[in-house]
Design goal:
This protein has 349 residues and is an alpha/beta fold. It has two domains: 69 residues, Transferase, Pyrimidine Nucleoside Phosphorylase, Chain A, domain 3, CATH 1.20.970; 256 residues, Pyrimidine Nucleoside Phosphorylase, Chain A, domain 2 (3-Layer(aba) Sandwich), CATH 3.40.1030. The protein has 16 helices and seven strands. A seven-stranded mixed sheet has the order 3-2-1-4-5-6-7, with helices on both faces. α5 links the parallel β1 and β2. α2 crosses α4 and α5 crosses α14. The chain is globular, with a radius of gyration of 20 Å. The termini are far apart. One of its GO terms (molecular function) is anthranilate phosphoribosyltransferase activity.
Length: 349
């Protein structure tokens, strides 16, 4: 048993009226003791559920991010005219709406914007489809790529992926606790703002509840991150919705450090229902249809989503131009060819 960890546990788990928030340094220490398994399983499970009940603060999240940056894998910087875009998604996946970010990442990469993603296998508590399975459906198995080769893939094909079980086994060691406590712990929010890339980047983090966005924003500011985007996306991802207004936060440098952007799909002819999730095999067929230019309802959602990120990535002056560029890249076969190039690079690595 760790006496140091027990004292940290007592602070967050003392009840609604007597609990105390951890300092940034204490939160960093707590997560480090959990990742290194210095804390006992009983202590780890108790902390994760108590911290969820208490609700994390921005300072605590910043401290946990300190530990991820200290102990986690680091993808070496590449030479690139555009910052690497970090497209996040909750690690426990999606089970209601079709995930768009793999196709979005391919569109961005084919336009010259490097994209880095990270995640693991199917994970409690949602057990939804993870990014790694969607990429496999596209013919790309990121689980086989060693960490030192991820930056090479990022340089050659403008795409990379950090796979938790292989590249960050200490974090993978905390996954069973999610199933045992039956709830998402605060580290699920931490994963949305973790950036394993060492060079210039632009983080995009999805969220569901406004308080989570506030924690994300303030934790990133505590880390000195000024350029980032938050999206009230589909199931907490960075995929823009089509059945409602897209609510977006833009973290920018001074003099306007925080801006709110609301995009109405109907203003762009994009208002419709979101594409529902069915099965992985059907998803693979749908994604291939989009890449080959065959008519499919998924295409419009990809144009809406990738058009926004082409705009934010500086490849288009407006959202409308971003969607037009996305359509050109898909219709010309450029994105499909880039996917084939990615498959070849990963296979070589």
């Amino acid at each position: 048993m760790s006496l140091v960890f027990r004292n940290l546990l007592k602070k967050v788990g003392s009840g609604a009226h007597t609990h105390q928030d951890l300092t940034r340094a204490e939160a960093a220490m707590a997560l480090k003791l959990m990742l290194e398994q210095t804390a006992t399983p009983a202590q780890i499970g108790a902390f994760l559920i108590a911290h969820r009940i208490k609700r994390p603060t921005a300072a605590e999240m910043a401290g946990m991010l300190d530990t991820y940056q200290e102990l986690g894998p680091k993808v070496a910087a590449i030479e690139s005219a555009s910052p690497v875009m970090i497209l996040s998604q909750p690690y426990d996946g999606r089970d209601r709406t079709f995930p768009l970010s793999p196709l979005t990442a391919l569109v961005l990469a084919s336009a010259g914007i490097p994209v880095l993603q990270h995640g693991g296998d199917r994970m409690p508590t949602k057990e939804g489809v993870p990014l790694i399975d969607l990429w496999r459906a596209l013919g790309v198995d990121w689980s086989r790529v060693p960490l030192e080769q991820v930056s090479i893939c990022l340089a050659k094909a403008h795409l990379g992926f950090v796979y938790l079980p292989r590249h960050f086994p200490a974090a993978q060691g905390l996954v069973p606790y999610r199933e045992q406590i039956g709830k998402r712990p605060p580290i699920a929010t931490l994963e949305l703002i973790w950036n394993p890339y060492q060079g210039a980047s632009h983080l995009v983090a999805g969220f569901v509840h406004p308080p989570t966005e506030t924690i994300i924003r303030d934790a990133l500011y505590l880390h000195g991150v000024q350029e980032f985007t938050t999206v009230k996306g589909l199931e907490g991802s960075c995929d823009l919705p089509r059945e409602r207004t897209a609510i977006i936060g833009l973290g920018r440098h001074q003099p306007e450090p925080w801006q709110r952007l609301r995009l109405h799909p109907q203003d762009y002819g994009m208002n419709s229902s979101n594409i529902p999730w069915t099965t992985l095999s059907e998803a693979g067929e749908a994604m291939q249809q989009v890449l080959t230019g065959e008519p499919h309802p998924l295409t419009a959602s990809v144009l809406w989503n990738s058009g926004f990120y082409l705009w934010q990535g500086g490849k288009a002056a407006t959202l409308t131009e971003g969607m037009a560029l996305s359509q050109d890249l898909l219709c010309s076969g450029t994105v499909r060819q880039h996917c084939q190039r990615l498959q070849a690079v990963v296979e070589q690595l």
